Amino acid sequence: MSEMLDYRYVAAKANLSPVKKALLICSGKGGVGKSVLAASLALAFRERGRRVGLLDLDIHGPSAPLVLRAEKAELLGGRRGLHPVEASGVKLFSLYYYVGDRPVPLRGALKESLLLDILAGVYWGELDYLVIDEPPGTGDELLVTLRVLGSKASAVVVTTPSRLSLSVVKRLVGLLRREGVEIVGLVENMSYLEVGGGRVAIFGESRVDDLGIDLLGRIPIDPRLERALASGRGVKAAEKYWDAVVKVAERIEKKLSR
Amino acid sequence: MHEWGIAESIVRAVLEYAENEGIKGVWEVVVSVGELSQLDLEVLRYATETLSKGTPLEGAVFKFKQEKARFKCNRCGWEWGFEDVKASIEEKVDVRVRDLEGGSDLPVHYMPELIYTYASCPKCGSSDFEVVSGMGIKVVRLKVDE
């Protein structure tokens, strides 16, 4: 009776019931720009007038508050649990607020338990989209969120054109298909660099067609992105990056509305 | 008052379990509450019994028992309790969650696993320790009519 009587599954379903769609932003490998993309997509949906939450599930390296320029916030709790922080109109939950730069040295079962605490203990209210920044790979974080969210979850897969990233993405896609998760499409990040009016494919030519998933967009390497984040001006100051993200957000909504 | 939300979910979880298992009546629900959660057991009892009214659980006795937190270091073997480290955690951790109904709590009240972030072995300082007991909230026993 252990899982059936783990009140957190019941609490998580109740807390997430006012959320219309959970968008899992997943990648096979780390370092493909998934966290920045997840936060940017949340912002883009907000600018399109949607009610948006961003759940930063990267337990070992939470970073969403840095991208949304909301590093300091008052933490609130109430009868329904923890309240997300408001950041640029997006409701945000990130462990960053609770642990700062301290390590979170958790092993498998404990990680799963912490994820259940978060899914059960954060009250989002009504949302059109809950964007979930999943850690890379096919580990506990992804499996637990799929178990709790069920058919509410759809996935957006992020990769770079790198052969290494693509080979691991195939495993991720295999898992998502096996679990019956709708894959909205694929985003090819760091796709190219614009130099002197031309495009240079830093990681080689795109091979995403091999995966058999709809391409939601190719996002260029924008040298201004790092500066925009470091200076606190936010992702919108990196125009090429932001324009590409907005187009991806439009395509996601178009696909979900079919 | 996080306790009310937890109580509501415990009541729902027991109701769902009883229905799925074809249980006719539940007379007693025993819940183990880990010390790390720092929950008010009396509030939990009152809330579960109040929220059970008008449901098939009405009249059931809810018993909440605190499980003391014990830790064991995997590096040096030292064993200790929450009371040995609580004061130092409260002193060094500057993060608090303000309760909208009054007061404030350490984050472990909501996420007990974060004890691994805030605590270390009092003897050797390692973060590689086990929580032997006292983490989480579990329904450990039901007295029922089959």
Which key features would you list for this structure?
heterodimer, A: 258 residues, alpha/beta, eight-stranded mixed sheet, two-stranded antiparallel ribbon, 9 helices, 12 strands, 38% helix, 22% strand, B: 146 residues, alpha+beta, hypothetical protein PF0899 fold, three-stranded mixed sheet, three-stranded antiparallel sheet, 4 helices, 8 strands, 32% helix, elongated
Structure write-up:
The complex is a heterodimer of chains A (258) and B (146). Chain A has helices at residues 7-16, 34-47, 64-67, 96-99, 108-121, 140-149, 163-178, 224-231, 239-256; strands at 19-27, 52-56, 76-78, 81-82, 85-87, 90-94, 127-133, 153-159, 182-188, 193-195, 198-200, 215-218. In chain A, 38% of the residues lie in helices and 22% in strands. Chain A is globular. In chain A, a hairpin with a 2-residue loop joins strand 10 (193-195) and strand 11. Chain A is of the alpha/beta class and 258 residues long. In chain A, helix 1 (7-16) packs across helix 5, helix 2 crosses helix 9 and helix 5 (108-121) runs parallel beside helix 6 (140-149). With 146 residues, chain B is α+β, with helices and mostly antiparallel strands. Chain B has a single domain, classed as 2-Layer Sandwich (hypothetical protein PF0899 fold). In chain B, 32% of the residues lie in helices and 29% in strands. In chain B, the strands form three sheets. In chain B, strands 2-1-8 form a three-stranded mixed β-sheet, with helices on one face. The mean pLDDT of chain B is 93. Chains A and B meet through helix 1, strand 3, strand 4, helix 4 and helix 5 of A and helix 1, strand 5, helix 4 and strand 8 of B.
